[in-house]
Design goal:
- By secondary structure, the chain is an alpha/beta fold.
- It folds into two domains: 12-112 and 226-242, Rossmann fold, CATH 3.40.50.1860; 114-223, Rossmann fold.
- It contains eleven helices and seven strands.
- The protein has helices spanning 20-32, 56-62, 68-80, 97-101, 111-116, 135-139, 144-149, 159-173, 177-193, 206-213, 224-242, and strands spanning 12-16, 45-49, 85-87, 128-132, 153-155, 198-201, 221-222.
- The strands form two sheets. It has a four-stranded parallel β-sheet. It has a three-stranded parallel β-sheet with strand order 2-1-3, with helices on both faces.
- Helix 1 (20-32) links the parallel strand 1 and strand 2.
- Helix 1 (20-32) crosses helix 11, helix 8 packs antiparallel against helix 9 and helix 9 (177-193) crosses helix 10.
- The longest helix has 19 residues, at 224-242.
Length: 250
């Protein structure tokens, strides 16, 4: 088939590097969920992957140096590149989403909103949802607040399991994804036994860790990275459909 014409009216900007593997995982999922007959059917994007952005967890829990100036700089690089839609594949960094989205004139997707948009398909109202995330993401209620407002009961790991999550995240960031995934596996099992009807994988290191370890879900998993990728692909598909080019999600 002939290649589709490119469409300069759409350019996804990815504010990444938090961490690097999470950004690569997001981009792989973006490609995987886009139906394409050739290169030109895929989502056009630019990425600013800056691993040196200061710790989001440290800033939230211990008052260390704010990552916001570095994130604003990365965001501005994306805007200068012509981005028409922004996405950030890091859950904890969404503590600063409002500041990053303010006054830019283009949409900036929110990872928690995209992840939970269809949760009613997995869990009935007033059902129980487990959340695996960094201590900082739990502290700001990124997922739990939204779930509770929607009428769900939230289950979070107890202190010992939260320490296992933190250790697993550190291992994934060190390039030891399968070892990290094995740390997450016990937490997943504990949440399932506690009655979770679905589990939010609320740290972007968790999905690639579980995948590397070969862990399979016993209840539905809600992967915010995948949900964010699908929301980006859907925006691209909508533009192409409206322009008569007919791209849809895989």
């Amino acid at each position: 088939m002939p290649e589709a014409e490119s469409d300069p009216a759409f350019l996804l900007g990815v504010l990444g590097g938090m961490g690097p593997l999470a950004t690569v995982d997001f981009l792989a999922k973006l490609v995987a969920c886009t139906r394409a007959d050739g290169d030109a059917d895929h989502v056009p994007f630019v990425a600013a992957s800056i691993p040196q952005i200061p710790s989001r967890v440290g800033a939230i829990l211990r008052g260390t140096r704010s990552p916001l100036p570095a994130m604003l700089d990365a965001r501005d690089r994306l805007l200068a590149s012509g981005a028409t839609l922004l996405a950030m594949p890091c859950n904890t960094a969404h503590r600063w989403h409002d500041e990053l989205a303010s006054g830019i004139g283009i949409p900036f997707l929110h990872i928690a909103d995209t992840a939970l948009a269809g949760i009613e398909a997995s869990v009935p109202q007033r059902g129980a949802v487990g959340v695996i995330a960094t201590e900082a993401t739990q502290a700001i209620g990124l997922f739990s607040g939204r779930l509770e407002r929607a009428g769900y009961r939230v289950l979070v790991p107890p202190r010992d399991d939260a320490a296992a999550v933190a250790a697993g995240i550190a291992l994934v960031k060190r390039g030891r994804a399968a070892e990290g995934g094995n740390h997450f596996a016990g937490v997943v099992t504990a949440l399932e036994r506690a009655g979770a009807q679905a589990i939010v994988l609320g740290c972007t290191e968790v999905p690639p860790g579980l995948e590397a370890a070969g862990i399979r879900p016993g209840v539905p998993w809600i992967d915010p990275t995948d949900a964010l990728a699908r929301a980006c692909a859907l925006a691209w598909a909508d533009l192409r459909r409206n322009s008569g080019k007919g791209s849809v999600l895989a």
